[in-house]
Amino acid sequence: MCxxxxxxxxxxxxxxxxxxxxxxxxxxxxxxxxxxALESVKVAAESGADAVKFQIFKADELYSxxxxxxxxxxxxxxxxxxxEKIANFAEKQNILFAASVFDExxxxxxxxxxxxxxxxxxxxxxxxPLIKYIARKNKPVILSTGMSTIGEIxxxxxxxxxxxxxxxxxxxxxxRYPANYSELNLRAINTLKNTFKVPVGFSDHTIGILASLxxxxxxxxxxxxxxxINKNLPGPDHKLSLEPHEFKELVKGIRNIEEMLGDGVxxxxxxxxxMEKVARRSIVARIDIPKGxxxxxxxxxxSRPGIGIAPKFLNMIxxxxxxxxxxxxxxxxxxxx
Length: 337
What we know:
elongated; two-stranded antiparallel ribbon
């Protein structure tokens, strides 16, 4: 395993041998409604997420007014006072609050809200001026890498590092909604770890939780998954999002996998010590062997339980002399010969 830097986000540490950092990506699923946003934060916290993440933007900066998405994003734009209420509410719910930010004004707002990290969306991985501006806030940066090459990721990382910020986490993802299993290439998680020596997670745009669980098993340090309180709400991302009961299953699955993975050291477990005696074999007398008898192979068999001399020592037993009468089916011990 390569040595990967660790990044502290709020009271959480992200990296290898640390609990997976789980982000409920509420994104645009607030539908432009503060009440839905607050309810989403509350339920995400109850579902076991470590953080909630939104998208803060100015539609006039993000899209040309002639673009077909402009009206949609304009309707989903929340005012500053709404973000203040959401951030304060998240703190009361004991869950970290952050956002993807798409312009300098939004970066400044998130900074003033004292968010513990900044998220850079995949679409902005080549927006070096914005990346540098974010890096100068001296908060951890989570960078999504959909639609990108190793070279483009390296350029973005160098832009962050050039501002003196070394607290970076990469997210492998596929920028398709929903993403197909055949395009996920989850082995890229460890490619990114080995290449850049930073924590790497997975931003999951598939339907369901299987891909996220597979990513954790492969070593993902972060899981970001879209979250909604109701898949039937209007908006572009609800259908591929998890509802609260599904998100709870995701969290439970991740924590179970962490327990399964262990530390990688091959050893006998405590529960196996008893089973070792039951399941392994010993050298056992096939017949009665009188004291003074030279022991031959045909007098022996290899049988359970495994409380005597191990089978690998069979050739050391053959030709020895019995020191005592050994009964048929008795497990042979060293002091018997």
